[in-house]
């Protein structure tokens, strides 16, 4: 018992020492930074300010360029031809292939409208699958809704139905945001190793299993309850 107590004490002392050392290093680093700023002459400070202003100006110009290319809002494109033009001029594009009669497409619309405003670095589009048979065949789109995730003009990934989103109609916007982050099609600020629906599961949220239904006479399935 005594030996065990002694080893616990030693471990505690080692840990305390580690924390002290870390704090010391951080403080020394901060002191050095403050000293560096104190020793800077006016020219150097002016130079630093100019660099900061340049960076802000550049970020503002980039934002304006994105807005001029139709970023910042979720919008419908009328035809397949428009799709090729749109993906050519933007680095990151999310395109929702939808059908008017598919209920789950409306759920997807709701989340994409929010994300388009938040992630101005990415272009968010929707295209009617029934009006784009060539594209659906070429991209092998068989389930509606499907999101095609395009980087540098090439389709890199797909979100097919709600399978990757916790397999529920009640998935959150954060869950879709996480999935887009996994595809590196948006600048994601969260932890990719921790999907939002995992934490939902911890709190006992039950997920309904979705059944894919085949639409009669159509070559793609629908993740919806209509038929």
From TrEMBL:
<keyword id="KW-0597">Phosphoprotein</keyword>
<dbReference type="GO" id="GO:0030496">
    <property type="term" value="C:midbody"/>
</dbReference>
<protein>
    <recommendedName>
        <fullName>Thioredoxin domain-containing protein 9</fullName>
    </recommendedName>
</protein>
<comment type="subunit">
    <text>Forms ternary complexes with the chaperonin TCP1 complex, spanning the cylindrical chaperonin cavity and contacting at least 2 subunits.</text>
</comment>
<comment type="function">
    <text>Significantly diminishes the chaperonin TCP1 complex ATPase activity, thus negatively impacts protein folding, including that of actin or tubulin.</text>
</comment>
<keyword id="KW-0963">Cytoplasm</keyword>
<dbReference type="GO" id="GO:0005634">
    <property type="term" value="C:nucleus"/>
</dbReference>
<dbReference type="InterPro" id="IPR036249">
    <property type="entry name" value="Thioredoxin-like_sf"/>
</dbReference>
<feature type="domain" description="Thioredoxin">
    <location>
        <begin position="53"/>
        <end position="181"/>
    </location>
</feature>
<dbReference type="Pfam" id="PF00085">
    <property type="entry name" value="Thioredoxin"/>
</dbReference>
<dbReference type="GO" id="GO:0005737">
    <property type="term" value="C:cytoplasm"/>
</dbReference>
<dbReference type="InterPro" id="IPR013766">
    <property type="entry name" value="Thioredoxin_domain"/>
</dbReference>
<keyword id="KW-0539">Nucleus</keyword>
<keyword id="KW-0206">Cytoskeleton</keyword>
<dbReference type="GO" id="GO:0005813">
    <property type="term" value="C:centrosome"/>
</dbReference>
């Amino acid at each position: 018992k005594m030996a065990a107590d002694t080893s616990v004490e030693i471990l505690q002392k080692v840990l305390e020492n580690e924390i002290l050392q870390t704090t010391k290093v951080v403080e020394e680093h901060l002191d050095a930074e403050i000293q560096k700023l104190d020793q800077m002459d006016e020219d150097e400070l002016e130079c630093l300010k100019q660099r900061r202003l340049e960076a802000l100006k550049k970020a503002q110009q980039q934002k304006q360029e994105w807005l001029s290319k139709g970023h910042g809002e979720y919008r419908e494109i009328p035809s397949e031809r428009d799709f090729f033009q749109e993906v050519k001029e933007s680095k990151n594009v999310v395109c929702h292939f939808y059908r008017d009669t598919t209920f789950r497409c409306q759920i997807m619309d709701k989340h994409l409208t929010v994300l388009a405003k938040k992630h101005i670095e990415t272009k968010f589009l929707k295209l009617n699958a029934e009006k784009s048979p060539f594209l659906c065949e070429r991209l092998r789109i068989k389930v509606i809704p499907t999101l095609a995730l395009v980087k540098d003009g090439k389709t890199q990934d797909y979100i097919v139905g709600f399978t990757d989103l916790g397999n529920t109609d009640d998935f959150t916007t954060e869950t879709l945001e996480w999935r887009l982050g996994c595809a590196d099609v948006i600048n994601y600020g969260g932890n990719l190793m921790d999907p939002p629906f995992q934490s939902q599961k911890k709190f006992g949220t039950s997920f309904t299993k979705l059944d894919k239904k085949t639409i009669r006479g159509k070559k793609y399935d629908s993740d919806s309850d209509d038929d």
